[in-house]
Amino acid sequence: MNCATVKEWMPHYIEGMLSPEVELNIRLHIEACPDCSSWLEEAKGLAALWSDMERGADTLEPLDFPDLTVDVMAHIEKLESGRRERATKATMARRRTAPGTSWMHYGVAVGLTFLLLQFGVFEDLAYGINEINGQMSTSVTAWFNPK
Ligand SMILES: [Zn+2]
């Protein structure tokens, strides 16, 4: 076994994926060869670093992604319930102050609000759209509460 072969098989040697005879040959060569011995130390250091990084990624992943999902879902829930609340308020305002009128305006406004909200959620512009949404609801309420 020569140095080039030993260096080529080094990663597999470190991972313990070689057959016992090959592993033994490599070990015997490394013990007899200072050059390959220092290669092994260096490669072991890199392998340890690499597996640390992989472990780090493994522990980070399950922590990060579900949290993000829960956050986004909670945000969507909030937006949705906010929309329903405003729609209910607008309906109540309409019933109280403007019976039998502006049904079409109300329907268009709600449909448009809903569309904007959907667009906002999917385009990740939810916050900005929600602001517009709030202003729209205010104006919808104003229509049914003419002062
Ligand atoms: Zn060697």
Task: Write structural notes for this entry.
InterPro entries: Anti_sigma_zinc_sf, Znf_put. Belongs to the zinc-associated anti-sigma factor (ZAS) superfamily. Anti-sigma-W factor family. This is Anti-sigma-W factor RsiW. Pfam families: zf-HC2. This protein is an all-alpha fold and about 150 residues long. Helix 2 packs across helix 3, helix 3 runs antiparallel to helix 4 and helix 4 packs antiparallel against helix 5. Helices cover about 90% and strands about 0% of the residues. The mean pLDDT is about 75. It has five helices and no strands. It folds into two domains: about 55 residues, Arc Repressor Mutant, subunit A (Orthogonal Bundle), CATH 1.10.10; about 80 residues. It is rod-shaped and about 95 Å long. The relative contact order is 0.08. Bound molecules: zinc ion. Zinc ion binds next to helix 1 and helix 3.
